[in-house]
């Protein structure tokens, strides 16, 4: 199985509630590393995105630790990589600023990998990762092969001001983004701010699933997740309990981990609820560690015991 991963990378600068500050890889790195740790020997991860030319060699070296990752779709971009500053008031409340956001990933760059894809994860890390027309082209290119696409709405609901601060704003064309997408993921805040007419969750689920989707997932941090799906022509809601995390150290990237774990399981099984339950547990493990440093623990508990090199960037 080949999983295509599309979304922007970034470098996170995090100010934690206790005043500590950490820096680490962020953005789509969480998605790729999670998939790499869950992959078996028959699964390849194909990330497609730019990285700043000054960081390119180091970034490729870091991802090359994972045998499952094919880095041929990662390309250098002139200028620095996106830097995201996250200031946490508590584990669930933060202020976000983004600098040096890359331009959207062009369709020809993605196109050369589409014939290999058995599943596609689109994670809108910056909100500018893909143009809507590019997503349309991707959908059309894989439609006849019934390749599933999982969309993490993520920063599509975030605007940006002249001081690089991100703030919530509705997405008038949300239906076009979600059309013919098999599974869609967002957190509670993203769901509440997605539509200009402020649809409640159930009505949002009804309309979203009517667009051709099979599953709509709302992540709820320490309160678990909710899955809406079609069962016998009716929309059913399933609430997943909180994951069994022993402690909460850093929630950064947990939604990206959820989406990657969900995609890995769903692309294999086409079981929305089962994949969401699995993703909920994997994401719960990720918050026990600061930054992406604990992602390799996923392999120990949930992965297929692929060898990972000790080489680091």
What would you note in describing this structure?
The structure is a single chain. Helix 1 packs across helix 8 and helix 3 packs parallel to helix 4 (132-142). The model has no long low-confidence stretch (mean pLDDT 91). This protein has helices at 28-38, 56-63, 107-114, 132-142, 174-178, 188-194, 201-209, 254-269, 272-286, 296-301, and strands at residues 2-6, 9-15, 21-27, 44-52, 74-77, 83-90, 93-99, 119-123, 149-152, 158-160, 166-168, 183-187, 215-219, 225-231, 234-240. A nine-stranded mixed sheet has the order 5-4-1-8-9-12-13-14-15, sandwiched between helices. With 313 residues, it is of the alpha/beta class. The two termini are 28 Å apart.
Mean pLDDT: 91
Please bin the fraction of helical residues: 25-40%
The major beta sheet can be summarized as: 9 strands, mixed
Number of helices, where a helix is a run of at least 4 consecutive DSSP H or I residues? 10
Structural class: alpha/beta
Instruction: Flag low-confidence runs.
Output: none
Query: What is the approximate shape?
Result: globular
What labels would you give this structure?
27% strand; alpha/beta; four-stranded mixed β-sheet; 313 residues; nine-stranded mixed β-sheet; globular
Secondary structure blueprint with pairings:
Layout (H helix, E strand, L loop, with lengths): L1 E5 L2 E7 L5 E7 H11 L5 E9 L3 H8 L10 E4 L5 E8 L2 E7 L7 H8 L4 E5 L8 H11 L6 E4 L5 E3 L5 E3 L5 H5 L4 E5 H7 L6 H9 L5 E5 L5 E7 L2 E7 L13 H16 L2 H15 L9 H6 L12
Parallel strand pairs: 1-4, 1-8, 2-6, 4-5, 8-9, 9-12, 12-13
Antiparallel strand pairs: 2-3, 6-7, 10-11, 13-14, 14-15
Helix pairs in contact: 1-8, 3-4, 8-9
């Amino acid at each position: 199985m080949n999983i295509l991963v599309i979304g922007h990378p970034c470098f996170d600068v995090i100010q934690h509630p206790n005043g500590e500050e950490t820096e680490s890889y962020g953005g789509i790195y969480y998605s790729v590393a999670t998939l790499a740790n869950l992959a078996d020997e028959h699964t390849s991860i194909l990330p497609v995105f730019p990285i700043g030319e000054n960081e390119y060699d180091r970034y490729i070296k870091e991802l090359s630790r994972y045998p499952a990752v094919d880095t041929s779709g990662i390309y250098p971009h002139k200028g620095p990589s996106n830097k995201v500053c996250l200031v946490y008031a508590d584990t669930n409340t933060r202020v976000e600023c983004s600098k040096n956001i890359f331009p959207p990933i062009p369709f020809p760059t993605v196109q050369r990998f589409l014939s290999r894809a058995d599943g596609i994860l689109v994670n809108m890390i910056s909100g500018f990762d893909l143009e809507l027309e590019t997503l349309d082209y991707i959908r059309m290119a894989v439609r006849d092969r019934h390749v599933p696409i999982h969309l993490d709405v993520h920063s599509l609901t975030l605007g940006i001001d002249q001081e690089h601060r991100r703030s919530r704003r509705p997405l008038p064309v949300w239906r076009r983004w979600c059309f013919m997408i098999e599974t869609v993921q967002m957190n509670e805040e993203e769901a509440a701010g997605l539509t200009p007419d402020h649809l409640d969750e159930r009505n949002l689920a009804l309309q979203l699933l009517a667009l051709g989707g099979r599953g709509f997932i709302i992540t709820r941090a320490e309160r678990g997740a909710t899955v809406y799906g079609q069962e016998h022509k009716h929309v059913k809601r399933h609430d997943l309990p909180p994951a069994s995390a022993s402690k909460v150290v850093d929630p950064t990237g947990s939604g990206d981990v959820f989406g990657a774990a969900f995609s890995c399981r769903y692309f294999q099984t086409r079981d929305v609820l089962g994949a969401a339950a699995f993703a909920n547990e994997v994401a719960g493990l990720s918050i026990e560690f600061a930054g992406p440093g604990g992602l390799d623990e996923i392999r120990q508990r949930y992965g297929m015991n692929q060898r990972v090199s000790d080489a680091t960037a």
